[in-house]
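Following the same procedure, the fold was encoded as tokens, giving this record:
***
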Amino acid sequence: MDIRVQKTFEALFALEDIREMLRQSLPGTGLADTEGFNGQIQHIRSVLDDLEAGTGVPKIEKIGGTLGIRSREEEYVNIQPIQAAGRLTPEARKALIAYGDGYSTCDSCRKPFRLDKISKPPIADFHQELAAFLNMDAARVVPGARRGFQAVASSLVKPEDPVIVSSLAHYTEFLAVEAAGGVVREVPLNEKNIVTADATADKIEAVIAETGKTPALIMIDHFDYQLANEHDVAGIGKVAKQYDIPFLYNGAYTVGVMPVDGKKIGADFIVGSGHKSMASPAPSGVLATTDEWAETIFRTTQMKGDLTNRKFGVKEVEMLGCTLMGCTLMAMIASFPTVKERTLNWDEELRKSNLLIDRMLEIEGSAVVSEYPRKHALSKVDTTGSFDVVAKAHKRRGFFFSDELSKRGIVGEFAGATRAWKLSTYGLSWEKVNYLADSLQEIAEKYELKVNRDNL
């Protein structure tokens, strides 16, 4: 580990030890261990001297005796698709420090004792801002996009009800439907691996003919997780309205990285992922809906205890009362101003994505599996004709490629993969994108693969 990274963590951890001394002291009486406090201050000064000089000896032991330091984002260019847009902002990391205690969001919780009603910190305001951000009428935070799918499916889907999904749908959509007792019916892809409005309408007609039932729900990803191709969600929204079927827009790879207008799309529900696309810790996500469906999805409990007659009428059933407590929610709120701002720079993110793919395609034998030019920062590439040719003769097989990337400070590819694999440029600076492209071409040339620099 780079010594400056090591010393940065060492200083942060030493400050946490001082923080614990303050926590252990009686209010208004000063520190119980003044000598220990002063000694820790001197230690921190020494660590900062090492940090400034880039010298010193690594001294951090395992956190809690078992956990190592995660320095991936400090030391490497990380191209892992599910991590790219979930990198925390500095504000979010500060929120983790300040609100790390379990129920920290509940310090000032008052009646009606519900998360989205808390005004201090401004959680209630945040819920309203989320809905406005997506141009929807109501929003809730949930423990990941999957819990958003689950909340909608359990509210609308009855046993044996058909639900329309994409042929590239995420497994959590399947699980949400299965948990509700429904049955998925997949819309086929066209020759470009796209889900179209016409294909969705045809599938609805086929399902009605087969089962005699109109599907209870349509769930379609804007950009799927396998190829990150863009699907015709606006057209599908119109089809859903024609058949009077509720439409869930899966924005796991869009909410928080690009502009999303739910009403323009024609969505009845929007589900987003905090930890995948909103610079938030896991597990976190968002579920938004319109006034038409809010009372259904956010229904409150009507149940009453048979002995005590207790009832908790303000609690929302699908949310199990409250959802994201503590630092997870606080970090999401802290990142939100940056998240809103960055969605306005989506065109620049696309230019970065296409620059990298263009440079990769200059390596003879490489191909892009996703639609091209790219419409997303996540891409699936096929290097069967390039890096996999090297892997077949290399003693490390496909791991040679991981080794070469790691030597250059690049991580996040699927270890050992040299055929079809995914990467994301989201959030990387132009400098890092160019460095990544240069590195791929350098590795190719090292192993005598032809690079056609003037072809594109």
